[in-house]
Design a protein that fits this description.
Elements (H helix, E strand, L loop, with lengths): L17 H11 L4 H15 L3 H12 L16 H12 L2 H10 L4 H10 L3
Length: 119
């Protein structure tokens, strides 16, 4: 008999992966031709501008981006404190890439400013 608070199955119920198993089996059949066709279709959608397809491909290749704490400026922050917070944000490669993409025409100007400010 089990005591109160003691589980009769400490590992818990085994997760059902019926869908995953069937999907793997279907993709593995025909020596990966189906998987290749799906990849090609996904690339085609991404190339045509499908944002969800682009996001999925980017996450599969480069991993999901890490979340960055937003910087909240207060009125009594010094310029040096703001610069330090900006430097912390720009130390994250994905933040820097996103900023450069958003401001593509000004990228060279931004890089000159960042280099000049030692960020």
């Amino acid at each position: 008999m089990w005591k109160p608070g003691e589980s009769g199955n400490p590992k818990g119920r085994r997760p059902r992966r019926v869908f995953d198993d069937h999907l793997r089996e279907a993709l593995a059949s025909q020596r990966g031709q189906r998987a290749k066709a799906l990849v090609e279709r996904m690339l085609g959608k991404a190339m045509s501008g499908n944002v969800a397809a682009m996001k999925l491909i980017c996450e599969r290749i480069g991993g999901k981006p890490k979340t960055v704490e937003p910087v909240v400026a207060t009125d009594n922050q010094t310029l040096e404190q703001v610069r330090q917070q900006l430097a912390v944000l720009l130390a994250h490669p994905e933040v820097r890439r996103n900023l450069e993409t958003l401001m593509k025409p000004e990228t060279e100007t931004i890089q000159r400013i960042l280099t000049k400010q030692n960020f």
